[in-house]
Amino acid sequence: AERLWPKSQLDWSGCYHKITNTEICWRGAWLTLPLFLFLLSGCATVSGNRVSDSLHSEQGLASWYGNEYHGRQTASGEIFDQNDMTAAHRNWPFGTVAHVHNQNNGETVTVRINDRGPFIRGRIIDLSRGAAGELDMIADGVVPVRADVIHWGGGDPGKPPRRRVWDIFLPWRWFG
Question: How many CB atoms are located within 10 Å of the residue 173 CB?
Fold first, then answer.
């Protein structure tokens, strides 16, 4: 390893080369690299359940809801019809279209997100009674599913929704 300057010509305390009058401080570089890596890690996404033909995929439990909410207003503002092929998700944008696969029996249904929920730990999606009937899960109530987004609602169909500032500092998965 070749030295750029003789050791006697470097002022290590001030990070200043005495002959060329140039600043060559390396102490800041040791802080810059970890800071850069930390900031870069915030751009990374983890998706262990990636499916090649879908935009996004999640696995977990699905439940259904119907009679007591039939005719009431959903979080999106539309009136809930328990016989429609709709669903509730905590943070997918309204209008998102997804395939939901019942992993117990292989049945699949296509639903549109029009409400918020479920608010029970471990569940990823609440289906309308009509969608639950297509998956043959009415009697079971809660079944393991895989939900694959095929079209994001409310924007560019190829891009996921923008993360809001409060989603970064208050991850909803901690509460449900």
Answer: 9
